[in-house]
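Request from the bench team (R.T.):
"We need a structural guess for the complex before ordering more zinc ion. Sequence and SMILES attached. Just send the tokens back."

Command: build protein-zinc ion structure.
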Amino acid sequence: MPNYIPAAKPAAALIVVDVQRDFMTGGALAVPLADEKLPAPEGILPRVNGLMAGGGYARVVLTQDFHPAGHCSFASTLGVPLYAKGKTAAGRGQVAWPDHCVAGTAGAEFHPGLYARYANAIIRKGVNPAYDSYSGFADDGGEQTGLAGYLQSAGITAVDVAGIATDFCVKATALHAHENGFATRVLLGACAGVAAAGIEEAIAELRAAGVVVIE
Ligand SMILES: [Zn+2]
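Reply to R.T.: structure attached below.
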């Protein structure tokens, strides 16, 4: 049975999550298979660009992880080893990542190969030093980024999600899109994830929540 369901265009938007230098090859938090030098399906950039330029979406939104120095998601701030679980000053459990996507640094920039000119809006997330924000809609403290309102005011009813990383920010953004009432799909072929096991878990969690995951 084919699992491809055409999006309800033109009321559909594409959200491209965190296609930034620090998440690509050579970056501080490089995600496997995100590199533009690899041909699709190994590298996601050609597919993401194709969707942005020719996907027929009414709106294209880029999210951008954009942390202040000393952000609560950094191992250097939490004082625990990389990738261990620490606790933020606000008392939240937090995975300890390398310093990444620090505002004003090259690592926070979009990948130069990304067709950013096709974007209608850029949503920066993780800007509050006290809270992380895997989701493009709201941070861990519940503060909205404005993305839901932006899409709703544009008459958007359906959302496709692509980008990095499948098992973290893509998942969180898709779950919040669904919670905000958008018919939500994750386009796996245009996503890159951190770990195979985590990706499988993310797919199961997304499907259980009602998000359509397209292989
Ligand atoms: Zn981050």
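Two things stood out. Residues 166-179 form the longest helix (14 residues). Helices lie at 45-54, 75-78, 147-153, 166-179, 196-209.
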